[in-house]
Amino acid sequence: MSTSTEAPRSGSSATIDLNADLGEGLGNWSMGDDLALLDIVTSANVACGFHAGDPSIMRSVCQAAADRGVAIGAHVAYRDLHGFGRRFIDMEPDVLRDEVLYQIGALETFAQRAGTTVAYCKPHGALYNTIAKHPQQAAAVAEALGEFRPGLPVLGLPGSVWLRAAAEAGLSPVGEAFADRAYTPDGSLVSRREQGSVLHEPDLISERCVAMAKGEPIEDAEGGELVLDARSICVHGDTPGAVGIARSVREALTSSGVTVQPFATPFGS
């Protein structure tokens, strides 16, 4: 997987989006502090019911995001509640296409009720990692999103099969980096099954995010330098101390002269 070779962006002109995975509760069970994170991030990846979330949660998160001017994105996934969408499913492409279209269509209904629209899509978990390298599934997801709205912005790993498939389908690919995840030298995420795959130190995470926003190198899992061509950074909401980490990241970005704003706007805006 290729990474960016562009010159580092200057701190005075750097702009970045902060996104977080939200609405990942189910019924009376909740995960993370959605409202606190919505006061920090600029884009909300809202679970659409297949890996987490339910209709009432989708409605409430969409409304809270709209009230704060936070862009709403569809966090589509494999149909895998028990595994939280983190298990690969070998699906026929047309079935995957329809399941993705079903999810984003449901979220769009609640976004419209909140006075806005779904502004982008970010696949979740195993689906995100699979389509980074799996051409057939990547094409199926791209087809679904193109049927939903031509030109829709989509998040993914820079240089991935997924972003290439999205571009070929007429979507708008946007490179994404992860604040608290370790990277392999080729720009892939280190598997969560491996020790050290998730970072927990707020100062280290914040320093990495400033570097990523400015187009400067970060250290990969093998000690080398890696530059990621990203317009959005994900701050996970399900890790211990997530709100504090997200707040530290945003403060570090703004104090370093980086403008934090959504990469996508609601349809028709």
From TrEMBL:
Gene3D superfamilies: Glycoside hydrolase/deacetylase
Gene behind this protein: pxpA
HAMAP family per UniProt: PxpA
Organism: Ornithinimicrobium tianjinense
Name of the molecule in the record: 5-oxoprolinase subunit A
Task performed by this protein: Catalyzes the cleavage of 5-oxoproline to form L-glutamate coupled to the hydrolysis of ATP to ADP and inorganic phosphate.
Keywords of the record: ATP-binding, Hydrolase, Nucleotide-binding
Organism classification: Bacteria, Bacillati, Actinomycetota, Actinomycetes, Micrococcales
GO terms assigned for molecular function: 5-oxoprolinase (ATP-hydrolyzing) activity; ATP binding
Domain of life: Bacteria
